[in-house]
Amino acid sequence: MSTAAAAPEPDTRAAGAEPARGEGRFAVLQRVAQGELGSLRVLFGLILIWGIFTIANDRFLTATNLVNLALQIAATGMISIGVVLVLLLGEIDLSVAIVSGLCAAVMAVLVEQHGWAAVPGIAAAIVAGAAIGLFQGSVVTRFGIPSFVITLAGLIGWQGALLLVLGQTGTVNITNPTIVGLAGTFYKGATAWIIAAVVVALFALASLDARRRRLAAGLAAATPAVVAVRVAAVALVSFGVVAVLDQDRGLPLALVILIGFVVVFDYVVRRTRFGRHVLAVGGNAEAARRAGIRVDRVRIVVFVLASSLAACGGILFASRLLAVNQSSGGSDLLLLAIAGPVIAGTSLFGGRGTVWSALLGGLVIGSISNGMDLLALPSSTKYMVTGGVLLAAVVVDAAARQRRQRAGRV
Amino acid sequence: MTATSGSASGGEPLLALRGVSKRFGAVRALDRVDFDVHAGEVVGLVGDNGAGKSTLVKVMSGIYLAEEGEYRFEGSERHVGGPSDATALGVATVYQDLALCDNLDVVANLFVGREEVAGGAGGVLRALDEAAMEKQAAELLETLTVRLPSVRQEVGLLSGGQRQSVAIARSLIGEAKVVLLDEPTAALGVAQTAQVLALIKRLREQGLGVVVISHNLANVFDVVDRIFVLRLGRKAGTFAVQDTSHEEIVSAITGAEFGGDGRGNGRGAEEEAAR
User: Chain A contacts of B113, Cβ < 8 Å?
Assistant: First the structure.
């Protein structure tokens, strides 16, 4: 017994590879390899897809087509942000696509048929989305029914509501200049460059501030060189995008809106208490509950956000198509909105993923869709390819989870 | 062994239960039990299955309300009506399933539910103060000599012993004075068990009161100062670890000493207890 008592001290030293403090470059590299490999994988996939479609059709990588691509992914990406939030909780919302159509219809009818101004009309659409989310989230938490079932009921029920709102004609054209302007406004020349410069400057300031805080607390922080490389990368992407899009119509307002929403919700998820609680609930709901997190409230708020973001996506859609009709929010929109984040590494099992996967994944799946349109492939092929890509992404996600379970828990 | 124990007996107990009873229907799970733990003392809580160990811990952690008896903390009677009351007093419980979020890193797990936010305006959108939390986490783990690859490591990638250490360390973030550990070594290998036992000794050095529930008498003898034996919901005795033996504890657990009723199943319980 006394020999066993003597054992602990050397054992604890042996078990820890490095001291907790003073983690060096090695740990940073390791973290990049573990955490950000997903994003890198997506970037490689994107380059591959763009390469294939460029070889197949030389119009794919033209400025005109890339502006089209940006407009196409803006609405889907917006819906995907909400999907990411729900997926992080470990839940699913199958009603987002149809809710986007329904809310756009609410806006269209109020503005075009009842003479509302654009801003109240848009606000009404978002409030309608929030109310739907509140209802669905409350039912899920109150009765403990899987969100899959509740939102499947929503998928069908809100389709009926869409038909009801649209009324006899079944379609409402959008002529309001403000709403049309959401997808129809482009920034060229100086304005676009200033927007890119502001983005880069804000990123640089935020990076430096984070570094200052860590140094002030006596913690290891990114070296100035690493910060410089990160800022340079963001500058390269921002100015590169503007340079390319400027050759055609310019930087679309819709893309600026999407990126703005992504940045805000990325901040909410990674940097706020609420976001941390979402991740905790997605990782281990029982642990979160015992830690004093009001799990049901977190769930309801996330469903409200998801439906509200779906409404925002629906508004962008309506603005681009200049109409809301009976097929708004239908077709493959739901598949695309969910497939995007999953392809870009947000797990279906909860707790893992980033808001940026909404944009990156939207870009991947939008590129595939856009490229196949350019090649004039039939719908049959398009559906099967998109479904296949989603299937592959889900399998990769599930395989990664199995690896974690085998390796992580001894 | 004898050198480390006996440091903190005597004086006012930190947490004390006086004449606590708890009934489930016709079953008396606890029958007028007196229990106490002092600051800087590790008490082992042992007993056969169904002896009332879990019930007693749940009374201390506020999950169960005792029907009679007093809950005293730092010398005065307190009303504990739920787990949050116990937490507020400074009684932290580490359950057997650890309740960690595998997807979050060590710092996030230590602070989950009580994250620190940076000052200033912004309401719900205020940023988490990651630097402050990481600093506190590193300091806490340092004082406990818990070695981890990185405090930014995902908890799911840690070993069982490291996970248990993180779960125990978490209970100290909220200024705990008494820590209740439910089977802290049940799922661990030899080296990791030693790691956790060393951590329990450091909790004692920090002046905390520690209650360890365990089936493993060898571990209990390694780390505790005093062994509290429950049998059929009653206190079967409390033994200073330097003045007792395995045999004495086993017979207290099985009741072999107290008459014929324990004889029949004594062998099975002994095997259970020695496992």
Answer: 277, 280, 288, 291-293
Q: How many CB atoms lie within 10 A of CB B247?
A: 11
Query: Which residues on chain A are in Cβ contact (under 8 Å) with B131?
Result: 213-214, 216-217, 219
Do B66 and B22 form a contact (C-beta atoms < 8 A)? yes
Specify the CATH architecture of the domain A42-50+57-188+249-408.
Orthogonal Bundle (1.10)
| DSSP-derived secondary structure for B127-175 | BB-HHHHHHHHHHHHHHTT---S-TTSBGGGS-HHHHHHHHHHHHHHT-
Does B5 map to a domain? no
Residue B183: both structure tokens together: 């089977």
Residue identified by tokens 């017979």 is: B251
Q: What is the pLDDT of residues B180-238, one digit of tens each?
A: 998 888 878 888 888 889 989 989 998 999 999 988 888 888 889 999 999 988 888 89
* Counted domains in chain B: 1
The single residue listed with the structure tokens 């956000």 is A305
CA distance A129 to A312: 9
Q: Is residue B3 part of a domain?
A: no
Q: What is the extent of the structural domain holding B157?
A: 15-274
Q: Is residue B164 part of a domain?
A: yes
Mutate to test the interface with A, among B150, B153, B192 (most CBs of A within 10 A): B150
What is the rounded CA–CA span in Å between residue A70 and residue A134? 31
**Nearest-CB residue to B115 (from A273, A287, A351):** A273
**Inter-chain residue contact A293 with B112, CB threshold 8 Å:** yes
Tell whether B7 is covered by a domain: no
Q: What distance in Å separates the CA atoms of residue A309 and residue A315, rounded to the nearest whole number?
A: 10
Contact A292 B84 (CB under 8 A): yes
- Residue B82 sits in a domain whose CATH number is 3.40.50.300
Question: What is the average per-residue pLDDT within A230-251?
Answer: 94
Least confident of A225-234, A279-288, B184-193: B184-193
Q: What are the extents of the domains in chain A? A: 42-50+57-188+249-408
